[in-house]
């Protein structure tokens, strides 16, 4: 068993990632209302869709206060490590690779915004949450803070969210969400 806690951002203090047999197990530590909400939110969203640019949820377990999710193994870690060459064995990304990663992350976001019955706002797109597989294919990860927007079957109506329900990384979230606390189909 190998622990990947050095790949986590400062926000992920309540998580622990472990690799077991080429799968990643994400343990949600603690039993606060917030941790339980994040766990359920991630499962509810990831069970609904499959896309080549979204990390694949393989399973989950909640037993005796422990909450774990199991994901496909994404061999090249997070984009942040590649951009800032945290591993001396990593070659710097070429500009062509960087552009490809940006386009693939955009495909994942486009799917979340238009490819499902209800718009999904990730709310935490950071270089830590864009993972790269063995072929450097970008996969969006960490849906703990994601929000559901309007249904596509109805007329889009802005949805307000309360200040205390907003989570994500400021500077990486749409300004309309962080400033106005309003979700619209435009985002």
The tally of domains stands at: 1
H/E series: EEEHEEHHEEEEEHE
Percent helix range: 10-25%
Major beta sheet summary: 5 strands, antiparallel
The CATH topology, please?
A: Transferase(Phosphotransferase), domain 1
Rounded mean pLDDT is 78
Query: Structural class, from helix and strand content?
Result: alpha+beta
Return the CATH class.
Mainly Alpha
Strand content: 25-35%
Helix count, per DSSP? 4
Keywords:
5-stranded antiparallel β-sheet; 4 helices; alpha+beta; 187 residues; disordered N terminus; 25% strand; 24% helix; two-stranded antiparallel ribbon; Transferase(Phosphotransferase), domain 1
Give a quick rundown of the structure.
With 187 residues, this protein is an alpha+beta fold.
Overall description:
With 187 residues, the protein is an alpha+beta fold. The protein contains 4 helices and 11 strands, in the order E-E-E-H-E-E-H-H-E-E-E-E-E-H-E. It has one domain: Transferase(Phosphotransferase), domain 1. Helix content is 24%, strand content 25%. The protein has a 5-stranded antiparallel sheet. Strands 6-9 form a two-stranded antiparallel ribbon. Strand 2 and strand 3 form a beta hairpin. The protein starts with a strand and ends with a strand.
């Amino acid at each position: 068993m190998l622990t990947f806690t050095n790949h986590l951002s400062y926000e992920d203090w309540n998580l622990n990632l472990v690799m077991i047999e080429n799968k990643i197990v994400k343990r949600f530590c603690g039993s606060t209302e917030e941790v339980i909400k994040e766990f359920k939110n991630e499962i509810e969203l990831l069970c609904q869709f499959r896309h080549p640019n979204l990390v694949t949820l393989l399973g989950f377990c909640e037993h005796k206060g422990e909450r774990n999710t199991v994901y496909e193994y994404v061999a090249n870690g997070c984009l942040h490590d590649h951009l800032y060459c945290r591993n001396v064995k990593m070659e710097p990304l070429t500009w062509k690779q960087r552009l490809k990663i940006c386009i693939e992350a955009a495909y994942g976001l486009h799917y979340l915004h238009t490819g499902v019955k209800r718009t999904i706002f990730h709310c935490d797109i950071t270089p830590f949450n864009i993972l790269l597989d063995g072929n450097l294919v970008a996969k969006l990860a960490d849906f703990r803070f994601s929000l559901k927007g309007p249904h596509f079957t109805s007329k889009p109506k802005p949805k307000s969210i309360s200040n205390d329900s907003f989570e994500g990384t400021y500077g990486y979230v749409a300004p309309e969400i962080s400033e106005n606390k309003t979700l619209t189909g435009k985002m």
